[in-house]
Amino acid sequence: MTTQDNQSDHPQAGTDKVFATERLPTAFAFDDQVASVFDDMINRSVPGYSTIVSMIGVLAERYCGAGSRIYDLGASLGGASFAVAHQLPHEDFQLIAIDNSEAMTSRLQTRIAATPFGDRIQCRHEDLRDSEIRDASMVILNFTLQFIDPAARVALMQKIYDGMRPGGLLVISEKIQFPDPQLNELFIDLYHRFKETQGYSKLEIAQKRAALENVLIPETLAAHRQRLTEAGFHSFDAWFQCFNFASMVAFK
Predict the structure, then answer these.
(1) Whole-angstrom Cα distance, residue 120 to residue 124?
(2) Which of 51, 101, 121, 179 has its CA 20 to 30 A from that of 61?
(3) How far apart are CA 16 and CA 28, in angstroms?
(4) Is the pTM above the cut of 0.85?
(5) Tens of pLDDT along 22-52?
(6) Which residue in 34, 62, 78, 112 sits closest to 251, CA to CA?
(7) What's the CA gap between 207 and 57, in Å, rounded?
(8) Which residues pair with 250 in a beta bridge?
């Protein structure tokens, strides 16, 4: 997959200035303001994001043969969905992209309509906790689970497991915590320095961090492993990590 391949999927996005001016503390939301700059925001906020997305496509190429059904849960503007669609060497697949933000799904539907994948990518505006997962060869949660109420995560993982084909692949990308407080603080500091190198001011970093408090709730890799193992998944491990961000795979 090349950058040129995906230019039509990712039209020029606005620059993220959501937290650039002082504002009253409000909880972060995937509203129209965020959706309009999301491509810029996610690429400048998550170290290695473009690598994670492109490699999700490569994983799909390996594990999603003809007749596959693929779910992108929390699809936002379809980064992972389009990576998969471009990478698969066949056209015999169905991809269901689900997001509970109307601002995201309305834009994603427009993007899908501008690609050759309109008959293979289905966009749904719904709460993924209520979504049906059926006969899935691959399920993707790319920086999605962290926004789900922790009390609902066990049931969601079990539903996903039950809705997957034997041998199906689950990909989860998340912001993570570390059990060692010193390491946890180090990686948070390094991450904030990374954001500064991406052009974010200290004010932007501080205000976004406050907005995400109690909205984005990270966990340790061990907590993810335990939950997935209890649901029935096996061969769990992190395949990508940079600071306090990781992408994991597990198999049914």
Answers:
(1) 13
(2) 101
(3) 14
(4) yes
(5) 999 899 999 999 999 999 999 999 999 999 9
(6) 62
(7) 33
(8) 170
